[in-house]
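pinging the channel bc i need a second pair of eyes. not urgent but kinda urgent?? the chain im working w is below, pasted from the shared doc
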Amino acid sequence: MSARIVVGVDGSDESIGALRWALAEAALRGASLLVLHAWAYPTSVGIPTMRLIDIDGMRESSEALLADAIRKATAGSPSTVSVDAVATEGSAAHALVDAGEGADLVVVGARGHGGFLGLILGSVANQVLHHATCPVVVVPKSGAAA
């Protein structure tokens, strides 16, 4: 069985830094890389307006975010790492914990788009740290693993 690293991205600078770190680590380990983005239905939507949600558009937007993140992370330095990108519906933390089953490592940024500006560790990173069944690396904004 080959080594596998999972990294979560949300389009933030922190997640792009985590993706760069994960690419470098995957190259060192000879591992494949799963780049994951989770999207969720808007929480303020009621039953009558659920029909108005463009699920295909949300999925396409998520896939475009993944492609853009990979493009930014690999700009100027071609990678030999095998990269799979997955856009999935649901909680980012749950998706990362599930994808981390059997993985060698899960990588997340210290904080992304959500939360309060003063937080050092975002809620997704915190949940992944507490629930993942494999080692977790939290990459701070500077790009050096913590």
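so The chain has a mean pLDDT of 85. and The longest strand covers residues 32-39. — does that match what u expected or am i reading it wrong
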